[in-house]
Amino acid sequence: MDFYSLQSLLLSLLLFISLFVFSTSLSKERKSKGFNLYPLLGILPDFVKNRNRFLEWSTDILSLSPTNTIVVHRPISIHEVVTANPLNLEYMLKTNFENYPKGDRFIFLLEDFLGKGIFNTDTHLWKIQRKTASFEFNTRSLRNFVIKNVREEIQSRLIPLLLKNAEDESNKAIDLQDLLERFAFDNVCKVAFNEDPACLSEDGKSGGEFMNAFKDAATLSAGRFMYAVPFLWPIKKMFNIGSEKRLRESIDIVHAFADEVVRARLDVKVENDENADLLSRFIASDENSAEFLRDIIISFILAGRDTTSTALSWFFWILSSRPDVEKNILDELKVIRKRNGKSKGDSYDLDELREMHYLHASISEAMRLYPPVPVNSKACLNDDVFPDGTIVGKGCFISLNLYAMGRMESVWGKNCREYVPSRWLENGIFRPENPFRFPIFHAGPRMCLGKEMAHIQMKSIAASVIERFEMDVLDKHTSPLYTLSLTLRMKHGLMVRVKERCDDQ
Fold this sequence. Notes:
Layout: H1 3-24, E1 30-32, E2 35-37, H2 44-49, H3 54-64, E3 69-74, E4 78-83, H4 86-95, H5 103-114, H6 123-137, H7 140-167, E5 174-175, H8 176-192, H9 208-223, H10 232-238, H11 242-266, H12 278-284, H13 290-305, H14 307-319, H15 323-340, H16 350-354, H17 357-369, E6 375-379, E7 384-385, E8 391-392, E9 397-401, H18 402-405, H19 409-412, E10 425-426, E11 429-430, H20 451-468, E12 469-473, E13 482-484, E14 488-490, E15 495-500
Parallel strand pairs: 4-9
Antiparallel strand pairs: 1-2, 3-4, 5-15, 6-9, 7-8, 10-11, 12-15, 13-14
GO molecular function, one term: oxidoreductase activity, acting on paired donors, with incorporation or reduction of molecular oxygen
Keywords: Heme, Iron, Metal-binding, Monooxygenase, Oxidoreductase, Signal
Cofactor: heme
């Protein structure tokens, strides 16, 4: 019997057992804080049933729990706690930080792709990278380098592409999410490597192999977390078949590109000046093992590749059905331009971006409802008890459901599922929220180092696009389907028709 026949037999046997147990245990079904538990299978049948609406399903269940926390059981003794309680998040991410690392399971699932990069390590390896990165991200020179690259990408590529489409008589719809992803990829590669893959070039083809391989590697790596039967992906990896074969091929392309850049850079001394990228800065800090540098840079590309583009995609989708919010943003931009003597289409500097309080609130509100990273995870090193009374055992896997947290009435009030930018404003000034209620950029010692740079990029893009163009989103009243990768990407993109905005608007 060949492998494929054996695999089919095993899957058929598993399905038969599942159906048998399910059909014979309905009368014995029991619930645990909202989840149905089935003998031997735990929540597996319901997980499979709701896999395509996992976030909505888990949100509904969490909202029924008085503490917004639930305990679940899966096959193969996987014990998990899912929480959307800010007190629990603060306890894990700050108060008892050392007891809740990413954990061996998380690191193992992503190690092929991310290696020992900052987002896939704990303890001393994380501390070494965090210390260097924290210093570099707080330098004015790196901030100026980011602003310069964002401005150039907007003015030389994004705006001309949108303008060309707006002037096209066919008025063909374009995928705005795709444009934003290519923008973000170009930008983060410049910041990380000082290499320009030119993915947002006019033909959209330059640098495509590296970008597409990176996207596939991230999506397929994240898919390992979603296997209903956890031991299937290691079998596929062992025999190099299916998704694991595609993942290996994608990772090979990404690593080959990154290795080549790192090797070339190690042979050239680059001063830590205004034009220094992250790679040069880490080399200057003597963290110069080629593999170590590759892993660090790949992690930073991952962090900057989809997060801002995902956030802006959902923001523009929401904005398409909220002309009142769009008008308020346009009014704010007019005031800023007039105050600073600017014309429509001029670039905004850092101080002007900081004046965009309503735009900041509008983007933050979109991220509250559609967080770029909807679920995060931790592992418990030693037996513990959460502030809400939930018992957490040693080795337990904890899911931090940020998507659900943005929809918890106990956290955001009765209008928690409504888009209300004003909730972020106090006398017209943007008021930051407690990071444990709004952990979009994580919180505690692992708070995202690129938070300010993400806001610079998102506000720069949003302001430049909104003041120049009207975005007619197709199916604006239908919530887009999403793909659960490492970020909350729209499954079929964001199709829009672009129209140049009149001068008097």
